[in-house]
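seq as requested:
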Amino acid sequence: MKSFLLTSVFLLGVSSLALSKPVITPVHPESLLVSLPVVPSDWKLLSSSASNELMGSGEPVTIATRRYEILFEDKSVEPPLVKKLLLKLVAMDVASRTETVETFRSQLSLAGQGEDGRRKIDFGSGVLGALRIPSEGIIKCNALCGDRLALQIEMQGANEKEFVSVFKALDFANLSALARRLPDSLNSSGRFTLFIVDELNPKKNRSYQVGTVDFSTEVMESRKNSATP
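struct tokens:
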């Protein structure tokens, strides 16, 4: 189920040993999953899952991932060539993890100004991204929707023109609507219920509870004093 890649932008450290503090409870995985961009009916869905994760700093987030296989007709050659493209869509409700949003905003503001090859792209519905081509046949894009929804988009087997053509077919309206009504309730108990949702394999759906441990100076000093005979 851990389908989300640990990248330099979405670094997750799952741990029960984290600083306990009031944090925003992220949206339920199922709600994020059903709000992912709507795609054409002829795209083949390979996997669709979502889960909560607890970051090393004690901040829960929600991650949803879908993978598709797309048959794309390249009409620039004769006869037309049908190519198989692989697409991965990853969305995350960062909740209290504002550092992730700031990183994405920084990438957007710098896109097109440096030498890292990033370029801005507007997907509509208020979703802006910064795309880059790390290697031939692979295109990646980090995007933002509202103040808390971060996206990673990756396509394999496509050039930039095909990438743009494919993503013009995506409908981000549901994701944008979710961005306007995300929950903002706080959790200060240090106990979290995490959920796993697998759309294609519902038998794998489950929930479990985890807790954090407060390692702040005051708490550690208090424990030390209480342990002194």
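DSSP finds five helices and eleven strands in the chain.
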